[in-house]
Amino acid sequence: MKLFYSPFHTFIHKVLVTAHECGLWDDIDFIATFPFKNLDGEDQGEAYSIEAINPLSKVPTLATDTGQVIFGSQAVCEYLDAHSKANRMYPEAGPARWDAVTRLATADTVFEGTVQMVAEQWQAPEQWNMFVFERMWPKFIRALDWFDAEAAKGWDRFDIGHAAMLHAISYLGFRAEFYEAKDPIYPNFDWRDGRPALSDWYDEAVQRPSVQSHYNKDFTGDTGAARLQASVAEVLALQKANKA
User: Of 138, 164, 189, 223, which has the fewest beta carbons less than 10 angstroms from its beta carbon?
Assistant: First the structure.
């Protein structure tokens, strides 16, 4: 399998956590993908585009050994779980599953909203749309408070909802590294404040081998556009061969 993703390991990737938990880490070829790559002031996005296999040209995107392409992190995680050789990240149908996928959806909404705030701050401050920040922050705070209340109850297992929580919280916590400007509403926001149960759970969860496999570790593969496009070509060749 080929996993096209952005190899920034200063936050936790739920797809990478899922791949490791499911015992599939060694079955995956990790392809560095940079949808917003910019080199020396020149936009190199087209060179790093994967639109030939994903019309949205977004990561993560998974290509199977048959050339089937699956995109969207939730879809990729579900595919990996369905082919698990070890832990299952999605509980069987029932209350535990609905709890896990609800936390998954909530955490992914926090992550996607944080990405919007980061993208907004790529612009000059006078161009910021303050509605983005005003709309997102109340949602983030309520979600974090809910996560804290849920963590206080305790969990019997580690599931896809937890992987998504690690993803969202770690990204929200380090988002300032993406821009020099301070957040206009909460410039020194610390998600741990007033959330002891969530903080304790997070500190324990980040010690899992599936997190330590990549978190705060440099990507050691080829990050060149040529490698990316060669991998895209391989996927297209597989698709063509399987249609013949």
Answer: 138
